[in-house]
Each structure stands twice: as structure tokens, then as C-alpha cells.
Design goal:
Helix content is about 75%, strand content about 0%. The longest helix is centred in the first third of the chain and has 34 residues. The protein is built from five helices and no strands. With about 120 residues, it is mainly alpha-helical.
Length: about 120
């Protein structure tokens, strides 16, 4: 992000943080449900511990890796293309800055959709 304007850098950081929060929220929903089942006595403490461990080793770790690298353009573009972030809420100057990354993920999504059809 060497010659990227400060405003665009700030927008990237903000959108990346929003995407991370939304993906983490989505990943925590099954864990919250497991805690609810545990509170109702439907799941034992050992089983809940295993669910927590799997969450930590899986989704939590994957999201940490995704959002703690040095490529916020790719993080935000991926979040837009996959619907984590609403494109309509992204400032135009940021969409313009992300045009190549967005094209990359849109092409990737189109090719994976075509191969699974």
C-alpha cells in the first residue's frame, strides 16, 4: 500500500475490520447455539469443550489468518464478492481502488460456479 492515499488506506482498514467482525459473528453462531444446548442440559460439558476446541482450531484460526496478513485489498475484495460486505455500502473510491482484486475474485467465483454446475 505504498502510494495509496491515506483516506483509501483508512477505508481499507475500516472495511477489513467490519468484514472480520461479520465473519467472526457468523462463525460464532453455531458455538452460541451449542452453549444454549449445554445450558439446557442437552449437551454435556465434555462435548461442549470439544465443540469449542474445534471452533478454535478451525473457523477462529482461519479467520485470524485471513485478516491478519498484509493484504487488506484482497481481504476486502473477497468479503465484497462473497457477500460478507454489501457492495452498495462501499465508497466508490474504494471500489475503484479494488477493481483488480474484485475482478480476480469475481472470475474465481464464476469459474468455481461453472465447474460445480
Amino acid at each position: 500500500m505504498g502510494d495509496v492515499p491515506k483516506r483509501v488506506k483508512r477505508l481499507l482498514r475500516e472495511q477489513s475490520a467490519m468484514a472480520h467482525e461479520e465473519e467472526l459473528r457468523r462463525a460464532l453462531v453455531p458455538l452460541a447455539e451449542a452453549f444454549g444446548r449445554w445450558a439446557q442440559g442437552e449437551v454435556g460439558s465434555g462435548e461442549l469443550t470439544e465443540i469449542i476446541h474445534k471452533f478454535h482450531q478451525g473457523p477462529a484460526r482461519d479467520l485470524f489468518r485471513r485478516y491478519n496478513d498484509s493484504h487488506p485489498e484482497m481481504q476486502v475484495a473477497h468479503a465484497i464478492v462473497t457477500g460478507v460486505l454489501d457492495r452498495a455500502n462501499i465508497p466508490g473510491e474504494l471500489l475503484e481502488h479494488l477493481a483488480r482484486a474484485l475482478s480476480f475474485y469475481e472470475a474465481e467465483q464464476a469459474s468455481s460456479g461453472a465447474s460445480s454446475a
